[in-house]
Amino acid sequence: MNILEWIKNKVKETGIIDRERLNAMYPEICLDFGYTINQASYRRQVLNVLSRIDEKTSTNSFLNEVIPNNNETYEETATSIKAQRIFTRKPQTLEEVMEMFEVDGKIWECSKWTCSNWDVTSTKAGKTATNYSVKAEFKRRTDIINYQELKEKFIKDVEEYIPTYTTPIKYKDNVSGNLLEIAVYDLHLAKLGWKPEVGENYDHKIVCDLFMQVLKDHIENNLLKGFDRILFVVGNDFFNFDTITGTTTAGTSQNNDLRWQKMYNIGVNLLVDGITYLSKYAPVDIIYVPGNHDQMTSYYAIMYLYAWFNKNDNVNIDLSPKTRKYYVWNQCLIGFTHGDKEKKRLEGLMQIEAKEEWGKTKYKEFHVGHFHSELSKEVNGLIIRNISSITAPDAWHFEQGYIGATRKSPSYLWNKDNGLINIYNAVVN
Prior knowledge:
Elements: H1 3-14, H2 19-23, H3 26-33, H4 39-51, H5 59-63, E1 73-76, E2 80-87, H6 94-100, E3 108-122, E4 127-140, H7 147-160, E5 178-182, H8 195-198, H9 204-222, E6 229-235, H10 260-278, E7 284-289, H11 295-309, E8 315-317, E9 325-329, E10 332-337, H12 350-353, H13 355-360, E11 363-368, E12 375-379, E13 382-386, H14 395-400, E14 408-415, E15 419-427
Parallel strand pairs: 5-6, 6-7, 7-8, 10-11, 11-13
Antiparallel strand pairs: 1-2, 2-4, 3-4, 5-14, 9-10, 12-13, 14-15
Helix pairs in contact: 1-4, 9-10, 10-11
């Protein structure tokens, strides 16, 4: 028995057709069903019943609208529903089909339905009625995010591996006065580039290998110079798309090689591995900078990283949703943004948003993603530096002619008193 049938039975048993009195029976249906029914859904079904009981419609006829029949069927799988029922009226719209089969529109959508009919004559009453056999197929909606699935994945990861940090890492004496900033911008995990079409292959397996290789390259080439802390930015189009349908945050279609769930799982695991590796050499500060491809997904990822590393004193994670961030290393002030929004206005924002830090520091730079190529300019004491990327072109970039930039990831060695003292580029050959 479903909610609609329960209400019909109550009307038949009690003769009550008053909305308030039927709504007052809500606790009773919960007891009968053995669990809590959604109250809003119950009240909608009460209105559904009462709206069809009027002077022109026989109450008895409507209350028996769903005709018991051995041919009625209902088959549900994880992705589809196939059902057939007999009614005394014909549905006119998809919405009516959804309502008559009591299918949750937040989860399912009607992909197909058919209706056949026949007349039945009552010899006693001498009346003829029409019965309608409705067959319908429903498919699970793909335009909504299954947050329960994300939650279950996270819990499973935590249960399988709960990191412990019982033995603190003993770093070398922090005497260099240097900060190592590692910039792996615009990685575009899940982007698909096919060599015959764009000149080189690029997929999630290549990305994972490149990411770890680049981090190791930066560490190895800066060890002799020395560094006391590591600064690493998460976001900046780390992921290639942001929706179930494989589009950017704004809805632009992408060439992808992963489903959204797999992209997220691979991405957060890759970040955990990378940050764990970096933290072996120095304490790590993580800054979140949203991109235009992955504004939501990268924020979910930074929350995942916070949950993962929150017991690790060697990893500090910035959770602020602001699109521009600022980091101070004694005499050095470094700003971060993805760079797809501000344009020329960027030249005057640091002085306003970080005015106190601006006045106390000598060396100022803004590091910008989005453009996949290197470019720098100095305006009134502020250097604005576009950061290169190790990503390869996909079909759209190739067709538009966005090719030829050297694929590389830079790292910057900042001295607390002397500013930027070294730039190293990890180049993809």
